Amino acid sequence: MPHPNLACRIVPSTAGGFRPVRRSLRLRQRSICGLGGGRAQRAPASSCPGGWLRQTSATPLVKLDKAMIALALVALSLFSPAQALEKDVVVSVYQGVCREGDFSANLATAREVVKQARERGSHFLALPECFLSGYESREAVQRGARSLDDPELAQFIAESAAHEMVVIVGLARRAADGLYNTELVIH
Questions:
Q1: Does 58 reside within a domain?
Q2: Over the chain, what HEC string results?
Q3: pTM metric for this prediction
Q4: Which domain covers residue 109, as residue numbers?
Q5: Is residue 84 part of a domain?
Q6: Residue 1, domain member (yes or no)
Q7: How many distinct structural domains can be found in the chain?
Q8: What was the pLDDT predicted at 66?
Q9: Which residues of the chain have pLDDT under 70?
């Protein structure tokens, strides 16, 4: 049965231009601080050199069209220029909630969503920020945080990279100097 929180759209290749992107695992990170409340908060400069940390809520499906086109342009950039002109891109966005601090349960959900997006022919799948670890409280972030060499995470990355689909998923990454809000871009 299709997951009710997975939206897929076909975006024609004429939606925009081409910009080459190297295929690899990329990290976007910023320090996790000022958590809670569902609103932007300013953290003290000493604890969060990056400044603002934004906590987002789910976007209604009717507002996803612009986001879908933007994500499709990123997905198109992974193809050669000749392929990009010929391809329609299927972009999927998952909007479900995660189980706060329960990395294993969230990873199981992410695996299922990746499987369903792949079955629908998606080229690109985006899951929410900090989906694998949780985001609501400092305690949940601490419980759900993982390092990049975590065996469960490494297996998920390997499984996801084996398919011709770009997967973006967020987690709280544990590092020697603290926790980081990290988006994994897997291809």
A1: yes
A2: CCCCCEEEEEECHHHCCCCCCCCCCEEEEEECCCCCCCCCEECCCCCCCCCEECCCCCCCHHHHHHHHHHHHHHHHCCCCHHHHHHCCEEEEEECCCCCCCCHHHHHHHHHHHHHHHHHCCCCEEECCCCCCCCCCCHHHHHHHCECCCCHHHHHHHHHHHCCCCEEEEEEEEEECCEEEEEEEEEC
A3: 0.62
A4: 6-186
A5: yes
A6: no
A7: 1
A8: 52
A9: 1-88
